[in-house]
Amino acid sequence: MRQQEDRALLPTTAAAGPDAAAASGPSGRLRTAGLVAAWYASNIGVLLLNKYLLSVYGFRYPVFLTACHMSASALLSSVFAAATTSSSASRRPLSRGQAARVAVLGAVFCGSVVAGNVSLRYLPVSFNQAVGATTPFFTALIAYAVAGRREARATYAALLPVVAGVVIATGGEPSFHLFGFIMCVGATAGRALKTVLQGILLSSEEEKLNSMDLLRYMAPVAVVLLVPATLTMEPDALGAAAALAREDPSFVWLLLGNSSLAYLVNLTNFLVTKHTSPLTLQVLGNAKGAVAVVVSILIFKNPVTVMGMLGYGVTIAGVVLYGEAKKRSK
């Protein structure tokens, strides 16, 4: 779950979480460091496991894999909500209108995750991350097209290197695959669309949901959509999974671990957001992508070029400039 993550654009203007100030003491800093380490491990771990299962191990069923992710997220998010006493107020039933809006968000979320997993079958993680870093570009574009939301000229200008970097990386990618690239762009655009729609559909204070409650409601919607999609698009996926489990019992643990990590991506992102400042979150998010690229290259040993790495660097620089421009425009 790439990413899963719902790997949405990190906020740069939101207020710090209520526990951010508490992180100033030694115990608070240690707790925050542990959360960040868990966030990095779960994000990078699920990305690498997705790539391993879909491309190296030979389990070529991305829709079925996404269904496993969403099933785990639906189950574990309900357990988390039940175990968290402070969330009792948020466990009230959704209104009919709110449920319809969440269903729309769940469908978009589901589509973006499937597209991201499909792309990992064909593209190396390093290039996948470079394309995924263009989320701010798609967010600004979709916000303008859907909601008429305009940004300052400096903000739009900062998006130029974001796009230019991907163009450079594409030209220097030795493992480029057109279908995989289209799926990766679609996944990135889907994450941006969910972010924009979430701001529109759940805009009132009464309807706003934190990321964990939203996941708890969206994941079952995704499962309902993915089960028939798997049966239609990948009818032999369940049989192939059962056969692999019989031949290699470790496959079951790989699948369970991968699905659990997909949920932990969202949980750790929620906790890190709560315990850090927006600036720290932005920096950590940018660094996480770079760490994922380096680790994936070391593990999978996919060929990289100077042009490809230059393109990724230009994109990350553009993302940083975009965040700074957004802050100055507020």
Distance between the termini: 33 Å
What structural category characterises the helix and strand content? mainly alpha
Low-pLDDT regions = 2-16, 18-22
Q: In DSSP terms, counting alpha (H) and pi (I) runs of 4 or more, how many helices?
A: 12
Note the beta-strand portion: under 5%
Major sheet, described briefly? none
Considering DSSP H and I runs of 4 or more, what fraction of the residues is helical?
over 70%
Strand runs, count: 0
Global geometry:
globular
Mean pLDDT: 87
**Secondary-structure element string:** HHHHHHHHHHHH
Kindly provide the radius of gyration, computed on alpha-carbon positions and rounded to a whole number of angstroms.
Answer: 19 Å
Topology:
Elements: H1 26-56, H2 62-83, H3 96-122, H4 125-132, H5 135-147, H6 153-171, H7 178-201, H8 211-233, H9 237-247, H10 250-275, H11 278-300, H12 306-329
Helix pairs in contact: 1-3, 1-10, 1-11, 2-3, 2-8, 2-10, 3-7, 3-8, 4-11, 4-12, 5-7, 6-12
Folded structure, characterized:
With 330 residues, the chain is an all-alpha fold. The protein contains twelve helices and no strands. It has helices at residues 26-56, 62-83, 96-122, 125-132, 135-147, 153-171, 178-201, 211-233, 237-247, 250-275, 278-300, 306-329. Helix 1 (26-56) packs across helix 3 (96-122), helix 4 runs antiparallel to helix 11 (278-300) and helix 4 runs parallel beside helix 12 (306-329). The longest helix is centred in the N-terminal third of the chain and has 31 residues, at 26-56. It is globular and about 55 Å long. The model is unreliable at 2-16 and 18-22 (pLDDT under 50).
